[in-house]
Design brief:
Blueprint lengths: L8 E12 L5 H6 L1 E11 L16 H12 L7 H14 L4 E11 L9 E9 L1
Antiparallel strand pairs: 1-2, 2-3, 3-4
Pathway: Cofactor biosynthesis; tetrahydrofolate biosynthesis; 2-amino-4-hydroxy-6-hydroxymethyl-7,8-dihydropteridine diphosphate from 7,8-dihydroneopterin triphosphate: step 3/4
Pfam family, one: FolB
Family: Belongs to the DHNA family.
């Protein structure tokens, strides 16, 4: 691992799209809604380059699989719960990631005034 004073590398995957049955209103848990997930990982990923070792960097396909498992899993009432479950599982499986940001976005939230989305972002650090 490099010194903490070195600049960390950043890998981001944006707007992974899913349909999921989550929300506080019962109709949301029946009909569902569109969700997007963003994941940003920081770490010292240059160590992966020499032998092109995926396990020494951030595997964004793991981010997609983890988010899909949570979004397609049991209904949750809060996007905060979805974000937390994605982040906890992903951070536990990515030893070379020193900081992880996960954003969950619910498109067209069911409120009285039109809105593009509601979102939550959470951060994990080692």
């Amino acid at each position: 691992m490099q010194k903490s004073s070195a600049t960390q590398d950043v890998i981001t995957i944006k707007s992974i799209q899913f349909h999921g049955k989550h929300g506080h209103a019962e109709i949301e848990r029946v009909k569902g809604n569109q969700f997007e997930v963003d994941v940003t990982a920081k770490g010292y990923f240059k160590n992966s380059i020499k032998n092109e070792e995926l396990h020494k960097t951030f595997d964004y396909s793991l981010a997609e699989k983890t988010a899909a498992k949570v979004i397609h899993g049991p209904s949750k009432k809060l996007i905060e719960t979805l974000c937390y479950e994605i982040g906890e599982e992903l951070f536990s499986k990515t030893e070379f990631v020193t900081e992880l940001n996960v954003t969950v976005r619910k498109l067209n939230p069911p409120i009285d005034t039109p809105a593009e989305y509601a979102q939550i972002t959470m951060t994990w650090k080692r």
